[in-house]
Q: What sequence folds into this?
């Protein structure tokens, strides 16, 4: 059955968010695609898919912006069946090691990447609650957010933000423990070519990764007892 899917951070044609938008549209769903600024690539998709694609501007670093977007979407959609929190930011010092990185950048990365998805879930909860099936929330995390498997000396802001997103997800799993209408996971989506660079050595194209995740998400919708931090194969990843 066709569903209403909302995906954040969707403006870049080579990245994961846009390719998930494309796959869900190809499969017949309605998609709410959020962006920070106008995206030529999405406007082109709209020429093909018309009313089934709704583009909304939303900065997940701002509660005001997220609440305004929720109000806008509420006027056009009865419910959201699947929310994919995909948007992410990193600091300019992301690749630097501890002694070279400006630590004052970290808070912003955490605010957008970890708090942002929680802002979105809170503001869009009324629409999720109206889903006729189990509303699914998929927070796109990363193996880089695993504390147990941490091996890096760089990506400090990104790793901290994804670990915080995982914690936020688990807190919400507790919040919604007795609510049969909503189910949540954090997912490492695999190593994906999402930067548009031809020399990127990641094994998955953004389009193929989007299809792997689309199938996984449907398998997981009613899974309430399995692990909450999972890989793109649905296997448990250590927090
Ligand atoms: N690529 C990989 O191998 C890999 C591995 C593990 C996990 N992941 C995760 O997979 C997801 C997608 O990765 P990606 O590489 O495709 O991401 P990306 O290319 O960096 O795209 C992220 C999107 O988030 C948006 N964004 C940034 N700040 C925002 C804000 N304040 N409010 C709203 N949107 C904002 C960006 O918008 P603008 O276009 O306006 O900047 C962009 O469209 C991310 O969560 C990432 O951490 C990726």
A:
């Amino acid at each position: 059955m066709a569903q209403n899917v909302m995906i954040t951070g969707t403006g870049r044609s080579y990245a994961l968010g846009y390719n998930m938008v494309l796959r869900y549209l190809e499969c017949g769903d309605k998609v709410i695609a959020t962006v920070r600024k106008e995206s030529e690539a999405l406007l082109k998709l709209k020429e093909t898919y018309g009313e089934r694609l709704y583009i909304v501007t939303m900065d997940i670093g701002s509660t005001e912006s997220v609440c305004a977007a929720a109000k806008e979407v509420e006027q056009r959609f009865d419910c959201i069946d699947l929310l994919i929190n995909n948007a992410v930011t990193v600091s300019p010092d992301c690749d630097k090691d501890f002694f070279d990185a400006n630590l004052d950048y970290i808070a912003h990365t955490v605010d957008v990447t970890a708090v942002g998805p929680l802002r979105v879930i809170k503001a869009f909860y009324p629409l999720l609650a109206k889903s006729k099936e189990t509303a699914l929330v998929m927070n796109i995390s990363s193996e880089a957010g695993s504390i147990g498997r941490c091996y890096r000396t760089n990506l400090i802001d990104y790793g901290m933000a994804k670990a915080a997103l995982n914690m936020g997800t688990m807190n919400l799993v507790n919040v919604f423990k007795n609510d049969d209408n909503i189910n949540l996971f954090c997912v490492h989506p695999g190593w994906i070519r999402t930067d548009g660079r031809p020399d990127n050595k990641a094994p998955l194209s953004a389009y193929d990764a989007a299809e792997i995740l689309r199938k996984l998400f449907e398998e997981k919708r009613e899974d309430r007892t399995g692990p909450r931090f999972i890989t793109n194969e649905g296997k448990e990843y250590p927090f």
About this structure: The longest helix spans residues 106-129. The longest strand covers residues 30-35. The helical segments are 16-26, 40-49, 63-74, 106-129, 156-175, 206-220.
